[in-house]
Amino acid sequence: MNAVSRVLVARGRNEPQELENPDVGWGQRARDGVWVPTKDGQRIHIGIDVTAADTVGQILRPALRVFVGVDVDTDIVAQTTTGGVRLLTVIHGPDAPTEFRFPLSLADGLALEAMPSGGYDVVHLRYGATVGRLYNPWACDSMYRQVKADYSLAGQVVTMRVQHEGSYYPVVADPHYSR
Questions:
Q1: Exposure winner among 72, 79, 124, 171, fewest CB in 10 A?
Q2: What is the pTM of this model?
Q3: pLDDT tens digits, 17-34
């Protein structure tokens, strides 16, 4: 938690602020993921594919929960924002995986569209309107050095790849969804 706080402070004011959002619904366990709103009033589900322990989230305050040990040397600090969620992935050492999977369940009539920035828009197929966005991930190590992070998409599963080899740990990576 301390590493995440230091990194967010160092990144500055451009980061979305933690805020309680009644439109966001969290599952009890990491694997249950989170239900988030779209601009057109629908909801999508973002899962957290955990391979180690399927831990129960520790609720630190209404807008912040921590899932400890979701994978080898990996925790997730889940933060509710005004328009969605951040799933801050904290990588504690070189044995941690380099890929983190987030299965998506989209409402009927919605699809993912790759963006040049490296993120994905949630698009309403009938109207072509963007109703949500999964922003391009960023990552940095404990020395505030940028670590390469990007997404790949296979079906409805977004995989965040973080090339953390040779980094100073912990490394924090940030998938962020907003309507």
A1: 72
A2: 0.88
A3: 677 888 999 988 888 999
